[in-house]
Amino acid sequence: MKGKVVLQILLFIVTLVTTTLAGAEWQTGRLFFFDAEGFSWGGAFTRTQLLQGLAFSLPFLGVLTVHEFGHYFTARYYKVKVTLPYYIPLFLGIASSIGTMGAFIKIKDRIFSRKEFFDIGIAGPLAGFAVALPLLWYGFTHLPPPEHIYTIHPEYMVFGSKYADYVYQQGGNMSLGRNLLFIFFERVVADPALLPNRYELMHYPYLFAGFLALFFTALNLLPIGQLDGGHIMYGLLGYERFNRLSPLLFAIFIFYAGMGLIPASIPLEESYWMWGGYLAYLVIVFKPLFPELRQSLFLVAGVFLGHVTLAVFFPDVQGYNGWLVFGLILAKFMGVFHPPCPDERPLSTSRKWLGWLALIIFVLCFSPAPFLID
């Protein structure tokens, strides 16, 4: 037990370091192993710049930590054996990252009732969201002056305040997607004169940390399988109804993710490998939904033909292909269905209202296309 705690503390410390380095990268517009002259062993950053990375890592990890401990303390309240959070550091220094793949806890007991599943599932997103709101409020009410962007991109100074008319013409520019809560803060809370260009939001640490907090909250609240949203919806609907709904929502999710992946304008003989690869992907993610492969293949054919139809008649309609990776993780590792529990009694009215509140939070936080490259 002591060894696991030491590992969990070590993972947290390493993740704090990697997210701080990632924050410094975003705030300087440089990579850790590259400076103006090329490859460097961290020479691109000064000590002050590294410390500035804490303005991203502390609030971002703060939200993740509150989220995980929401699950942890609720599980302990129900006397369910559960581990402390395991943080997952991820930092390359040669490509942009956020320094982590998130965190998770491991439940080591069986959960015996819909109420316990519901309470443990909902505690994390609600706790994290409660911290993300003041973080966003602070970020949008304490924006630096527009000239702040010149500390990240000094080359923009030659264009002055009209730099956006010149510097984004070549394409390949990354921007953050939109969600309803971000739109609210931009239009109601922030000073319009101080709002950064949408291609520069990730260079503002509190805004970037707040956006990622909403992104991970929405990701966990997807009402599929054994995600937090799946636990919540299972508590609301029960075993049979939820396990009929979850694969339907998963199929819709994959359908949206795959829209626009293979344009109809490309001749078949030039893209057969793309078509074949995507068909293989659909077989892999839909196979766990049915007891027989034949049933999965019917769904594969329906989704694929739907995409072809959209590509022919509505070629401008696009989904978000980045979700395909998460769809694969759901299908192969996390599961689309929810296990039963001995106590299937319905939730109280107050918990039902709380469940629908969680659904509203999901809608407010969800970005259909969270990370865009033009």
UniProtKB/TrEMBL annotation:
The keyword Transmembrane helix applies. InterPro entries: EGY1-like, Peptidase_M50. Signal peptide: none annotated. One of its GO terms (biological process) is proteolysis. Keywords: Hydrolase, Membrane, Protease, Transit peptide, Transmembrane, Transmembrane helix. It comes from the Bacteria. Its cofactor is Zn(2+). The keyword Hydrolase applies. Residues 56-241 form the Peptidase M50 domain. It is found in: Membrane. It is a multi-pass membrane protein. The chain crosses the membrane at residues 86-105, 117-140, 204-224, 245-266, 272-290, 297-314, 320-341, 353-373. Pfam families: Peptidase_M50. One of its GO terms (molecular function) is peptidase activity. PANTHER family: ZINC METALLOPROTEASE EGY1, ZINC METALLOPROTEASE EGY1, CHLOROPLASTIC-RELATED. Belongs to the peptidase M50B family. This is Site-2 protease family protein. The lineage of its organism: Bacteria, Pseudomonadati, Bacteroidota, Cytophagia, Cytophagales.
